[in-house]
Amino acid sequence: MFTKKFEIRWSDIDANRHLANSAYINFMSHTRMAFLVEKGFTMQEMLKFGVSPVVFYEHVHYFKEAFHGQPITVSLEVSGLSEDGMFFKFDHNFYNHKGENLAYCEIFGAWIDLKTRKLSALPKELLAFTKTFPKSKGYKTLTKEDTRIHGRKPMNLDL
Q: Is residue 107 a contact partner of residue 28, using CB atoms and an 8 Å limit?
């Protein structure tokens, strides 16, 4: 399990004086990027291969409040990868200084080619780095069908 520690700043709280949901998203993003860099997915490597991660969804479940000035720990475990590395699923948990679970989030995403703006398999050099990823107990190999398990499809406005 990968973890990253944070202190809740004034700018991270909302009108209810607890950690804002947008701050949860920012802390998770920071944790994911720190994780990827540690595993070899540096900005230079991603730029070299012209790929970048994109998020399809983030499902957050809140359990307990977190407040200004408190330390929190955000964890990351990989709960799914496709064989070619195109799709990924991460599990994040938030913990307070007592180890109490404050929130859980499942995030599903993919890699895109920055030139074509289309989904892309990972280059073999980056795919090799995924062998060192910490996997969750419920880890599974992902397929394209997993991107639509919630049945959501775009619905345009009739203008």
A: yes
